[in-house]
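Support reply, case 0932

Customer input (verbatim):
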Amino acid sequence: MHTSFVTSKDGTNIGYREIGQGPGLIIVHGTMETSLSHSQLAKALSDNFTVYLYDRRGRGLSGPYRDDHVIQKEVEDLEAVLSKTGALFLFGVSAGALICLQAALNLTSIDKAALFDPPLIIDGSVSSDFMVRYDKEIADGDLVSALVTAMLGGQMGPPIFNSVPRWLLKMLTKIMLISDERHAKKDNVTMKMLAPTIHYDFNLSFELEDKLECFNAIDVEVLLLGTGKSPQYFKTALDALTRILPHAERVDFPELNHGASGNKNRGGNPERVAQELVRFFKTKM
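Our regenerated output:
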């Protein structure tokens, strides 16, 4: 992949990778991910599109978060990549889907957007109470506890984890972190490095909580993608967006989970997701 950089509106450096040929498609990754988390999806799309994968702030090639971080900063970062590349298509995953949703509302340079499991909070479907504990654990340097808190509070683990003792979840998480560090290659962004970024991604969800109605003004075609094994609040968000977006199409993958679009070593099925993306972005209105 070819690597390039662009400067966002507030001066933050945003790095991105490029692969393929054809119309431009930007992939916006989600929580605990980087641009490389969807490298296999990008390769599966590369015969049909020039795919751009950028590192969101606080990760990999890009600069750090600022204290005043809000979703508008994320949209400005994406807008900088759109302007530099001339891409017209967006694919956003989880928190990245929220950014694409807001960008489709604010920007006029987007032709189509595909959103995978956007964590839009509907009628209190997720509580922010856990964030106080998570932030304290991060501040104390207790990354293992913070990751467990975020997983349980964000409902990201399998349902059985709700009945597993916290000490055991911490032990399993510690083992996972050690293994991730041990197998990391030179340019990898590890889970340990990504743990503090969870704060900013969950804040995007809470910032957009109960702002569903404003997305009725989005005038571009939107593909909503979900899975049968994602937590319920993702399905609730997709149901609500299906009703409110004026030009929305819904596709579900009953057999897949929230990590479906990512690389295979994280349980993804990128080829299956790529099939729907190619169909959607290549279909004329």
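We compared this against your earlier run and they match. Two observations from our side: Residues 2-124+202-282 form a domain with the Rossmann fold fold (CATH 3.40.50.1820). The mean pLDDT is 94. Please reopen the case if you see a mismatch on your end.
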